[in-house]
Design goal:
Strand content: 15-25%
Oligomer: single chain
Number of helices: 12
Helix content: 25-40%
Largest sheet: 8 strands, parallel
Radius of gyration: 24 Å
Number of strands: 19
Strand order of the largest sheet: 8-7-6-5-4-3-2-9
Shape: elongated
Structural class: alpha/beta
Length: 363
Amino acid sequence: MVFANETILHVDLSKLEENLNYLKSKLKPQTKIIAVVKAYAYGHGDLEVSKKLEKLNVFALWVSDFEEGLILRRSGIKTKIIVANPGLKSCAEINKYKLDVVLYNHKLLDLYCSNKNKTDVHIKFNTGMNRYGFNKNDIYSIIKKINKNHHLNLVSICSHLSASENKNRPEYTLKQIEDFKVISNNFEVVFGRKLDKHILNSHGVLNFSKFQMDGVRLGIGLYGSTNDANLKQISSLTSVIAQIRELKKGDCIGYETSFIAKEKMKIGIVPVGYADGLNRQFSNTIGVVLVKNCTCSIVGKISMDSFVIDITKCEVKEGDLVEIFGKNLSVSEMAQKINTIPYEIYSTLNRRIKRVYSHSKRL
């Protein structure tokens, strides 16, 4: 298929399925999978990714705020949607579109107690991330309020790991898991029945799968950017060389004249910039791209809508395809170059970039 767009994020949904199946292979058949599609499915496009995950029968989809949930519901997604941060003003919309909510403090819990519409809720505890979550000494007051408000259907209790990617130093993760087990056991004893429990994320499944409990939340692992070689990057970002210029020694490139040609050189201009999500830290030879199997350094400062590459030693022409990341250039390696994480590279990709979806076995 021919597209008018020159800059395209290609998303291989077959690889998404393969990644899900690999992660499932580490789980018990009955373990429920909550697929994280917040932040536009980490930049990949939440609707198409969610449609695929729905066909793959995941238990639920995890979003950040109610607006992300509304978009999916209005687009026909029927699967359970859990809103991690429902906020204090969205009760009506959440009830209307039958979204689940994560409750993590008493203000939110009181709000949903006073709102008498039937709502599926999940209680979150802090076990060391020190972000959202009730404290362990809140158990009795939480249960007292839930027992008085029968319109609240308590689906699960959960927590969030902060260091599960570091399997060589597991102490903090194991401490969080142990704390959550104690909280969960106490909660169930007081509440009087068993509840679904989940704390593992993608790296938790990869490194601590025996603590999978009743469910897991899978995010970055689905999209393929982890340190496990069995998980494949599901996307590639490509553009084109829009213009070629020849420079002489002493010529400058881009804003702030930050790159000065030391000798005669040839450059290509690519119509992707920081407004598209290409981090400016890749400027001036930190970042590289691939053109016709030739590795080209980014030179000069990345602009809002374009960047420049050194093509002096490459046989290329205007219109040739440029791989920014993909089969040959991993997002994980890109992230390491600028001391960040793949999550940031993906989630900052602007929605003006065309997303194209395929079900091929090769990207």
